[in-house]
Design brief:
This protein has 786 residues and is an alpha/beta fold. The strands form five sheets. It has a six-stranded mixed sheet with strand order 3-4-2-1-5-6, covered by helices on one side. A six-stranded parallel sheet has the order 9-8-12-13-7-14, sandwiched between helices. It starts with 10 loop residues before the first helix and ends with a strand. The chain binds adenosine-5'-triphosphate (ATP). One of its GO terms (cellular component) is cytosol. Residues 58-68 have a biased composition (Basic and acidic residues). GO terms for molecular function: 3'-5' DNA helicase activity; ATP binding; DNA binding; hydrolase activity.
């Protein structure tokens, strides 16, 4: 147990404190068990509940979903249920301590007295913000450390007047607990930081929902952790708004999403969609890879013009007159008629597939008229003059409007006519158009003229059958907008689903009304935040899907809030797809412009955002590095200075006494030596993780050499030893990092120094550098050896 120097607790006193906290924590777990049993019982009853028919089925599904969600939430908070306690100074509104944990628990038998307060509730805030200088009524902040359900320690800070000194120069809250958390071995999966959130992080996590907030921070400053805790906070605080539309968290790649995947469930939140930009086009797997040059060009805003041109290129008119053979007769569409039809269709400003109807209508009118004239002249040539009856006038027309409509209809169904008209203005999907464009030199040449240089155009050309790439996805999304789709059938399906959802929602509320075990207060709480409309939107009755799951299947879904991590890597086209998913512009954007590796990425937030929100975005900064020890940051700072002497590295929160090492190894020998190098690092991190960060062309050979190292198998989701290129290591962290051939890492990318900076800052404890070429000046601070 650690205590602040002035709390005067002796060893027997500490044991007594731990025992007292154990008693309370056991009571909380008892309450958790009771809640769990209740949810289980309700779930079983719901599953068993009889009745067939749609209403009964909707009710059963509703109740099952509600109780399963509750059960999942109660199970997710088992580890570290309670982690904090606040005692207030005399005269404060609260004279008894409050306990802070992963969710709220109440004592129904004592007027719903709070037993445990959710960390997101406003009353919990002083736990994260109070300092000795500004105690906010807090006399003592206590971190309670538990292992399973056992209290193993308490860390106290006395904050009331006269106790200054419990926070150091970085203004850390709960320093002992924080340092203990940071010293933990990494497992390969990110953990939550709910017990040790720091004040500058808390202010970002709890910021308002609306508007665009950019969080800029150097490596290890907790940007990812803050982004995820913000998602949990927003879902708790703005549940009503966000449950219906969902929250989207965007990360750079699937390795990263796996790494962060457990954080939100551990905070009891499962309603968030985690996705890369490349996964935002439902039904399409972007498994291919572009060259960096192609990815950069595809990411440019100029691609909007290229795609617009490519769509217009599919709206053609014949060079000469177009002749169509219909039932032995040749009908002719001359260029002028087609041009006028095209202008009319384009003039509607509808997307291509919807404007097509206008184009076809015009041409069918023209064909039908021709056909009628043809028929009339045949009739007139062959039939002798018949005198008019008294009530007839001679307007020259033998066929009336109904005949014209019939002829038009026949033409519209004639396969030859359809083929001819489709040839001029085809109905086309985004996939068909993009694939045709990127595999046809002629189409590419036409669409890129005036927008890309010839050599840039050539970079885009690819072979038919190539895999889709992540950089294709924003282009497909853009095309989906430009092309549009005839959505009559979709709208009918949606209306049907809304009717079902409404029936479902009413069912849920009925069940809550009938359930006698739900206490009145609880009923009030539920109906306070839910009504049938809200519930109907929230849950898909037909499929039992949540908003996040429905969003994953719907390209046109718009989210209540979008959080973007490693946002500096996104291209201009990526931003367009994200802005389309978030018309409310309620966004949290986290990143570090010093770490941009992608040539399509950004080095200025304004450069990206001004286009969408002018200057109405706010910037917050994180300044303390929780990951990388000072010894490693000193070395990394040299690289940062080479990137831009104006940039400042974040301040490390701890030192390890372990200097980074460097050693030369001839390139040909690296494969032979890497295993012994990694073995030393594995021993140094005692069960922690090791990453070997390499230039692309060493990845395969070194992975093969290190197969099985540290007991890692190919199926491991969280391997102890990983061999990665820098772009795949982005956002991740490891206990020890070995950077191989840093000069090649720098040389192989347009932003090579940024990549090196990222590589050096992945380590939580140890860093080694293996030079295969000349030593780099910026790394001269590392010690020779190993
Ligand atoms: N308040 C905190 N308490 C405990 N651990 C923290 C805290 N803040 C950050 N960390 C830890 O610091 C490490 C770095 O955090 P994170 O990955 O979120 O940083 P980042 O800013 O996204 O880094 P990068 O830009 O380098 O990817 C993680 O292990 C995270 O859990």
């Amino acid at each position: 147990m650690s205590v602040s120097p002035n709390d005067g607790t002796d060893s027997a006193g500490k044991s007594a404190e731990i025992a007292a906290e154990q008693e309370y924590v056991s009571l909380l777990y008892g309450k958790l068990d009771a809640e769990r049993e209740l949810a289980e019982r309700r779930l079983t009853e719901a599953l068993r509940s009889g009745g067939s028919g749609p209403q009964a089925q909707a009710e059963r599904e509703a109740a099952t979903a509600t109780h399963s969600d509750r059960l999942a939430q109660l199970s997710s908070v088992e580890q570290g249920l309670c982690f904090g306690r606040l005692d207030f100074s005399e005269g404060h509104d609260d004279d008894s301590p409050i306990y802070i944990g992963r969710l709220g628990l109440f004592d129904e038998s004592d007027d719903y007295k709070p037993l445990l307060i959710d960390w997101r509730a406003p009353v919990s805030r002083p736990f994260y913000l109070a300092t000795a200088a500004s105690p906010d009524g807090v006399q003592r902040r206590r971190h309670i450390r538990t292992l399973t359900r056992r209290v193993v320690g308490v860390d106290d800070e006395i904050l009331d007047l006269g106790s200054a000194g419990s926070s150091d120069h970085l203004g850390l809250a709960g320093e002992a607990a924080l340092l203990a958390a940071l010293e933990q071995r990494r497992t390969g999966a990110m953990s939550d930081i709910v017990a040790t959130i720091q004040a500058e992080q808390d202010r970002i996590i709890r910021a308002d929902l609306s508007g665009v907030m950019v969080v800029q921070g150097g490596p290890g400053t907790g940007k990812t952790a803050v982004a995820l805790h913000r998602a949990a906070f927003l879902l708790y605080t703005y549940r009503r708004q966000l449950d219906t539309r969902g929250v989207l968290v965007v990360g750079p790649n699937s390795t990263f999403l796996r790494y962060i995947g457990q954080v939100l469930p551990s905070l009891g939140e499962t309603g968030v969609l985690l996705s890369t930009v490349g996964e935002l086009f439902p039904g399409l797997a972007a498994t291919g890879a572009d060259s960096p040059e192609a990815a950069e060009i595809k990411g440019r805003l100029a691609m909007v013009d290229v795609l617009t041109a490519a769509v217009r290129d599919r709206q053609t008119v014949p060079d000469e007159a177009l002749e169509i053979l219909v039932e032995g007769e040749v009908l002719t569409l001359d260029r002028g008629v087609c041009e006028r039809a095209r202008e009319k269709a384009r003039g509607t400003l509808k997307p291509h597939n919807l404007a097509r109807r206008v184009f076809l209508d015009r041409l069918l009118d023209a064909l039908a008229e021709q056909s009628v004239q043809r028929l009339e002249s045949v009739v007139l040539d062959n039939v002798p003059d018949i005198p008019l009856a008294e009530d007839e006038s001679d307007d020259g027309d033998l066929l009336d409007a109904r005949d014209l409509a019939t002829i038009r209809q026949e033409l519209a169904e004639d396969p030859t006519v359809l083929t001819a008209l489709n040839g001029l203005w085809p109905k086309i999907t985004p996939q068909e158009l993009l694939s045709d464009l990127l595999t046809s030199p002629e189409r590419l040449d036409s669409a890129t003229r005036g927008h890309l240089a010839d050599d840039e155009r050539d970079v885009l050309l690819r072979l038919p059958g190539s895999l889709w790439t992540p950089a294709d996805v924003p282009l497909l999304d853009e095309l989906a907008e430009l092309l549009g789709e005839d959505d009559t059938a979709i709208r009918a399906r949606r209306a049907q689903r809304e009717r079902e959802d409404r029936a479902y929602a009413e069912g849920v509320l009925d069940i809550l009304d009938q359930d006698e075990e739900i206490f009145d207060e609880e009923r009030i709480r539920v109906s306070d935040v839910l009504d049938a409309d809200l519930l109907a939107e929230r849950q898909d009755a037909a499929s039992g899907l949540t908003a996040a799951q429905r969003a994953a299947q719907d390209r046109t879904w718009t989210f209540g809030h979008v959080i973007v991590d490693e946002a500096q890597e996104l291209s201009q086209m990526d931003w367009r797809i994200l802005m389309r998913r978030c018309p409310s512009r309620s966004m949290t954007i986290v990143g570090d412009v010093s770490q941009t590796g992608s040539p399509a990425g950004t080095s200025s937030w304004g450069g990206v955002l001004d286009r969408y929100v002018a200057d109405r975005w706010r910037l917050r900064e994180l300044t303390v590095n929780y990951r990388t020890p000072a010894e490693i940051m000193n070395l990394a700072a040299g690289v940062l200075a080479e990137i831009d002497p104006e940039l400042r590295a974040p301040t490390s929160v701890r030192e390890t006494g372990e200097q980074p090492w460097q050693r030369p190894v001839p390139r040909a020998d690296v494969a032979g030596e890497i295993r012994s190098i990694v073995d030393v690092e594995l021993a140094g991190v005692e069960g922690g993780t090791v990453a070997v960060l390499v230039p692309a062309d060493l990845e395969g050979s070194l992975s093969a050499e290190l197969a099985g190292a540290g007991g890692t198998t190919a199926e491991d989701d969280n391997p102890r030893v990983s061999v990665l290129t820098v772009d795949r290591a982005k956002g991740l962290e490891f206990d020890a990092v070995v950077v191989v051939a840093p000069d090649e890492v720098v040389a192989e990318s347009a932003r090579g120094l940024n990549d090196l900076y990222v590589a050096l800052t992945r380590a939580t404890k140890r860093l080694g550098i293996v030079h295969t070429g000349p030593r780099m000046g910026a790394l001269s601070g590392a010690e020779n050896g190993r």
